[in-house]
Design a protein that fits this description.
CATH topology: Rossmann fold
Shape: globular
CATH class: Alpha Beta
Strand content: 5-15%
Order of helices and strands: EHEHEHEHEHEHHHEHH
Radius of gyration: 18 Å
CATH superfamily: NAD(P)-binding Rossmann-like Domain
Number of strands: 7
Structural class: alpha/beta
Strand order of the largest sheet: 3-2-1-4-5-6-7
CATH architecture: 3-Layer(aba) Sandwich
Number of domains: 1
Helix content: 40-55%
Number of helices: 10
Length: about 260
């Protein structure tokens, strides 16, 4: 068990399935009191019943007060896990602006709103833990997924800002950045996901395990796929070579469509 989460009040958004459900189960197994959030109320209730938690369905960006009440007045750990992705886009087939707006709202602004609601109490007491499910797309990018790639970069940037701004005041921040994870979201990535993500996809439980190792080691960046660190370093060191490599993957994807 991780002492930092024993008897902690934990909120996991987007926890009706996939990574969110795995996180909820892992926190409950470690002795935490868990609020399970999902837009799909029945899925949230099912996971909550399974782990002995409390279901708080609804918009992930507006549940902090209700979740706090359900936990007896305090949220100790907030997992901003809910996210949206759209099926891969062919060249010349851009997403409409409504899809871009939804991506920004769910993948970035929901994190901002949650932090805004949580920080006053956390700063007053000098402790709090914010977990952002970002994706390796936030460190690198993803072919065929412009809104997902851009907004996940935004989610990572916000998590970095939270960490550098408040870590000396007791706020711990973790950014989870897996590549492919066997979830419904992976299935929605279409042929691009089949090419890039499926070959090394892992189970959601492996993501939860990686987070708990990161909590034990007090690490900001959680990489369930360790090779992402090498890709990230290459991207920063020699960006043109990295972009050329990604373009080759893009061309391979286009040829296979």
């Amino acid at each position: 068990m991780v002492e930092a989460v024993q008897d902690a009040g934990v909120v996991v958004t987007g926890a009706g399935g996939g990574i969110g459900a795995a996180l909820a189960r892992r926190f409950a197994a470690a002795g935490a009191r868990v609020v399970v959030n999902d837009l799909d109320g029945e899925k949230a209730k099912a996971v909550a019943a399974e782990i002995g938690g409390t279901a708080v369905p609804g918009d992930a960006s507006a549940i902090v007060d209700e979740a706090r009440d359900a936990l007896g007045g305090t949220v100790d750990v907030f997992c901003a896990n809910a996210g949206v992705a759209f099926e891969d886009r062919a060249p010349g087939d851009p997403l409409d602006e409504k899809s871009w707006a939804l991506s920004w709202d769910v993948n970035v602004m929901a994190h901002v709103r949650a932090a805004h609601a949580l920080l006053p109490q956390w700063l007053e007491r000098g402790s709090g833990r914010f977990v952002s499910t970002v994706s390796a797309a936030g460190l690198l990018t993803m072919i065929g997924a412009p809104a997902y790639s851009v907004t996940k970069h935004g989610a990572l940037a916000f998590a970095e800002w939270l960490s550098l701004t408040y870590r000396h005041r007791g706020i711990n921040v973790h950014a989870i950045c897996p590549q492919g994870v066997r979830t419904d979201m992976l299935a929605s990535t279409g042929s691009a996901g089949d090419l890039v993500l499926q070959p090394t996809a892992i189970e959601p439980d492996a993501v939860a395990d990686a987070l708990f190792r990161g909590i034990e080691e007090d690490r900001f960046l959680i990489l369930p796929h360790p090779e992402v660190a090498e890709y990230y370093a290459a991207r920063a060191a020699i960006p043109d070579r990295w972009l050329s490599g990604m373009n080759h993957i893009q061309q391979k994807w286009e040829a296979a469509r």
